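Weekly structure sync, notes
Attendees: PL (lead), two postdocs, one rotation student
Agenda item 3: pending single-chain targets
PL asked that the sequence for the first pending target be pasted directly into the notes so everyone works from the same version. It is reproduced below exactly as submitted, 329 residues in total.
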Amino acid sequence: MENLKNHNNCTLTIDCKNCPQLKHCSNWDNFIEKHSDIKSYAHFDKRTSLSNPRTLKYILNINNIKSHNFYPFIHFSKTKKKFTQNKENMKTPNPRDLFYCSHLDRCVYQRYAFLLNEKYNVFAQNNHINSVAIAYRDNLGKTNIDFAKEAFRKISSLKNAFIFVSDFEHFFDNINHEYLKKKLCELLTEQKLPEDYYAVYKNITKFAFWEWEDIIKCSYEDEFNTTSKNKIKSIVNKRDKILTNLQFKSNTKYIKKNHTNIGIPQGSPISAVLSNIYMIDFDKLMSHYVKSKNGTYMRYSDDLIIILPLTQKEDITNYKKEIFDNIST
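Predicted structure, written out during the meeting:
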């Protein structure tokens, strides 16, 4: 039990087996075991992870989090290749904006993602949406393959089926900050966010970021136009930090900030959990509707699938209208 107490910074003399917090502490202990890897990419701070005792002690102290100075994210765009048999009709997908947080910031986000996910799991169970949000859940004991198998099994069990597959365009870019804060308060059963949670919320909504290309120019100005991007990335990631302290301080003009009231960075350890919390009301509404039709509804972040039994041709038109009516609500 010594490891359990260390991972939770516990100073109680009570035996863990008799402690009412045993399940919570054990879940956190398991979380650390699964997420203790050290990332290979270079950032504005030195590499660390939840496996580092000093880092763990730091993030477990809420007073540290209240005043924690978050580094800017590193931003770059990534285009995911899509393959199709018909090359003539193949469309180039829109690039995705991805944001990498610093190593210590990552640990902070992981801690609060864990805490929020613990709350969300209980809420989802109590509100009959536990099987709806399937992304980034740690209590369902299933993989994406299992969920896909469930969807195919449901379709196979129906003589005729109406299948609705969709996604929310620019989902993370359009998350409304005030609505997100409202749902967080409801989940935590608080009138306003506690100071440590607010510090995390404030930084993930009013986040600062630095473009990858600008960082490289600051660090490798002479080589930028003559060296391939992949080679530069390999060189940079061998460093302890992506910029020296002097380079960082001398080039803060490149730091950008989200000054709008919408959007959170996709790619942080907490963004996925926040997306599930943000969609609570939608999931409740859609789940209630689909269950009333003896169907299945699952959502993976900004992608969703609805499977409904089809009894007559008119159902297709009705289903489409009712689904979009629910979405617009």
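Discussion points:
- The chain has a mean pLDDT of 88.
- The beta strands are 73-78, 96-100, 161-167, 208-211, 256-257, 296-300, 303-309.
Action: rotation student to compare against the earlier draft before next sync.
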